[in-house]
Amino acid sequence: MTASDDLPWSAPQQTLLQDATFMADLRLMMLRFATLQLSNAHAAEDAVQEALVGALKNAQSFSGRAAFKTWVFAILKNKIADTLRLQQRSVNVGSLVSDADDDEALDELFDRTGHWQADERPATWSNPQACLQQQQFWVVFETCLNALPPQQARVFMMKEYIELDTPEICNAVGVTTTNLNVMLYRARLRLRECLENRWFVQGERA
Amino acid sequence: MMNCQQATRLMSEAQERTLSFRENVALRLHLLICSGCKNFSTQIPWLSQLMKAHAHGQDQQASPPPGL
Predict the structure, then answer these.
(1) CB–CB of A185 and B12 under 8 A?
(2) What is the ipTM of this complex?
(3) Which of A61, A122, A188 sits opposite B36 (nearest CB)?
(4) How far is B59 from chain A (nearest CA, A)?
(5) Is-above-0.80 flag for pTM?
(6) Which CATH number applies to A91-206?
(7) What is the pLDDT of residues A143-177, one digit of tens each?
(8) In Å, how far is B40's CA from the nearest CA of chain A?
(9) Within 13 Å of residue A127, how many CA atoms lie on the same side as its CB?
(10) Do residues B56 and B50 touch, judged by C-beta distance below 8 A?
(11) CB–CB of A60/A10 below 8 Å?
(12) What does the pLDDT read at residue A114?
């Protein structure tokens, strides 16, 4: 987005807009998220633009980049939720099928009788509350989210981040409740495993 | 007897819907004897809390401005 000279920018707005790297990174992150959720580059572009404009209007009330980022994502999230609710299902069967390839990787978590493989059995996470305060943990968390197959990431975030309910997600993605449950299950298995391996357990198992 | 794959699937579904009485009993019996799934059962709701904390900027120790 470009700053036009005839607008009376407040100091915080100017600071944010002048921080070209931050704004460019933020816009890219938003675009990636919106494109994944909406499966439509145009709609994603619009949602990101609107969210940025909306957030910048209120830039006076932000004490820094982190607060601005949080808020602009909250606005984006609401825009995406509205768009998805209005959409008469955007079936994207092709991309759904591609996620099915990952069955094998997940099946390796369990042995032939459906019990945990010895080295895959979930360990005890010590003091998970403490991780909330650690910047490094959130880097790991984002890495693990980004490592999910796209459609799993999409529905997981629809459920837990955008906070759509099951019928709304099924409608937006064009899947049955059973399919959705399987996708969410796989997303959780992967995310849990990733967090455990990269954060909670260093080389030992319960 | 329920295996770990079935148990974890049910624990995930419990995030979306209320489990039936039968499912609940079978799951609880499994959890009594399986430490891995017992850990899993506390971690899955935690994933959802993490996602929400992340969304609401607790990771940045910033609270959303009033009127949000």
Answers:
(1) yes
(2) 0.85
(3) A122
(4) 6
(5) no
(6) 1.10.10.10
(7) 999 899 988 999 999 999 898 999 999 988 889 99
(8) 6
(9) 5
(10) no
(11) yes
(12) 92
